[in-house]
Amino acid sequence: MLEIRSFSKSFDSRPVFSDFSLSAEQGSFTVLLGPSGCGKSTLFDLLMGILPRDSGRISLGGREMPDLRGAAAYMSQKDLLLPWKTLRENALLPVAVKRTPAAEDHRRAEDLFSLLGLSGREDYFPGQVSGGMAQRCALARTILFDTPVALLDEPLSALDAITRRTLRGLLLLLQSRFGKTILMVTHDVEEALLLADTILLLSPPPMRILEVLRPEGTKDSREESPSFAGMKRCILKLLQEGSR
Predict the structure, then answer these.
(1) How many Cβ atoms from other residues are within 10 Å of residue 43's Cβ?
(2) How confident is the model at residue 20 (pLDDT cuts 50, 70, 90)?
(3) What secondary structure, in 3-state letters, does 2-52 show?
C-alpha cells in the first residue's frame, strides 16, 4: 500500500536519516518506536511535504507521488483545533475546504460524535471542553478526511493516563472500522505493543531501523498476556543497545 524508499534528510550537514526505507500493507497499523529527537516527526514532515527531502521516493498503491498531501490525514499530539470554531465545525473542516458541507456530511459528523462520546457537545468551542474531548474531535476530523492513510504523531502523549487508555481503543477504529493504513510515531513502549501490527524500533539520529517486531496475540488481550512484560523488556533492551 505505502512504500518509502531511500529517504535522506540533513540539517546543516547533520544527517537526520540516510537511505531510510519502510513499507506498510493496506489496512495495517505500523508504529515507529524510538527515542525523542530521533527523527520520527521529521519523517512525517517529509511525507506530508511540509519539509523538502534531500532524496527518496514515495509510492502509494503502486503509484509514485511527490508527497502524501491529499492522500493522508495527519493527527498530532496537539489537537490543532481552531478556537473560534465549534467542535462540529472543526470536525467538518476537511469537507469545508473543498465545498459547503451538505446534510449528509453533518449526519456523518453526528454519527462520529456519538461513536466517540461527544454527543451533545457539537456546538461547544475547544476552550469549553477537556483535552481528551478536543483530541476526540481531532480524531473525528482525521476520519472525515476520507484518505487511505493516517499519520499519527504521538497523538496521546499530552493526555493523562486514563484518557490515553480510552483513546487508544478509539484510535484502533481508524483501522478496524474505517480501513485506514496507519503510521504512528511514539516513544511509549506499552502504547506501541497495544496498538501495532508491526513495530519498527528506531535508533537515535541518524535514524535507522534496529528491529522489526510483530507483537503476538489479539490487541484486546495483549495487556493481560503473560508475555506482555517480557516483550516490553525485550524492546527496552533493544532500544538501549541501539543507542550505544
Answers:
(1) 26
(2) very high
(3) EEEEEEEEEECCEEEEEEEEEEECCCCEEEEECCCCCCHHHHHHHHCCCCC
Q: Are the beta carbons of 22 and 39 closer than 8 angstroms? A: no
- 48-79: per-residue pLDDT in tens? 999 999 999 999 999 999 999 989 999 888 88
Q: Look at residue 33 in the predicted model and tell me its pLDDT.
A: 93
Cell 460524535 belongs to: 113
Res 127 pLDDT > 90: yes
Is the pLDDT confidence value at 119 over 90?
Answer: yes
- Other beta carbons within 10 Å of 130: 11
* Rounded alpha-carbon distances, angstroms, from residue 109 to 29, 114, 171: 24, 9, 17
CB distance 125 to 84 below 8 Å: yes
| Domain at 2-71+149-242: CATH code | 3.40.50.300
Q: What are phi and psi of 3, to 5 degrees?
A: -135, 130
Model's pTM, two decimal places? 0.90
pLDDT band at 244 (very low <50, low <70, confident <90, very high): low
